[in-house]
From TrEMBL:
The keyword Transmembrane helix applies. Coiled coil: none annotated. Keywords: Membrane, Transmembrane, Transmembrane helix. This is Steroid 5-alpha reductase C-terminal domain-containing protein. Pfam families: DUF1295. InterPro entries: UstE-like.
Amino acid sequence: MLIPASGMALPIIKSLTDCADYSKTIEPYIPQLAALPSNLYAAASSTDSLQHLYASTNPAVSGFAFSLALFPIFLIVSEVNKNYSQVDRVWSILPTLYNAHFAIWARVNGLPTQKVDNVLAFSVIWTMRLTYNYWRKGGYQVGSEDYRWALIKKQIGQPWFFILNVLFVSSLQSVLLFSVTLPTYILLLTSRLSPTMTLLDTVFARALMALVVVEWFADGSQWNYHAAKLSHQQTAKVPSGYTRAQLDRGFNTTGMWKYSRHPNFAAEQAIWLVLYQWACVDSHSLWNWTVGGVIAYLGVFAGSTPLTERISAGKYPEYRVYQERVGKFVPKLSGKRWDEREMEGMAATKKQ
């Protein structure tokens, strides 16, 4: 049996299974959420008081409170600027901020940090990759906005889009980016009974890193293809590594994109599934309450990917064939596959 750190900031745990029990690890600390604003106001004048409040507040509660506090900021900025990509701009940053919060909180309270440190290491690399990719595509330029928001706003109208902004875009998305890191909280708890990295822990940590590498190569392939396509459109010359038919097609079918229509999306979803499974294995549970964050994260892709594909199918004639022959996320194991020579022959026939 372990007595909780910092008074009642963490539960008394008797087994690893306890670490995944919502009634023991979250429910007793919900009152801290309601008391946090007044406690924060009372402690604001003293650094020592703020440090004590931070250390004595359950880290899942304080992380959740921060995600809620961001909501009015996102809402006001998005409505004033009529730009609804405010959460998009910090999408690559917030999960790592929350993982860092868990690691810092554990250190402040003298808890073992090997597991949360490994999560943080992966998370920092994940942030660097996604932030860089978002930046090079112009995501941080003034006025830049995800084109899908404009399409949705056009379809449902401004009044309904404002409601969507209040209920989802500026609010639930912020909470989602916190919720997806909650398995790290369970790893923090299990570290009190099992402080060192086991072989299985190492496998999970390396798997997370490997998935980021997959994302990096998928991003690079997509970036290189569209750079080559733009060069071809401007100069009429075919850059090395591509055929004219591939560039005229308009969408990438090289590298990983030959086997998956969205290899980067597939790896992104797998990352948070792996982190969740790590928490399940470490807490000796088949499933735990943090699955809600993972399901919600997958739900974002389930909702946005069809819209993206509908736009692509409307722009590129061959995209529907691509949809039939290439799996959305996971490569197809049966049926007709994508054949570059065949598709180039079909394109040449159509031109004739």
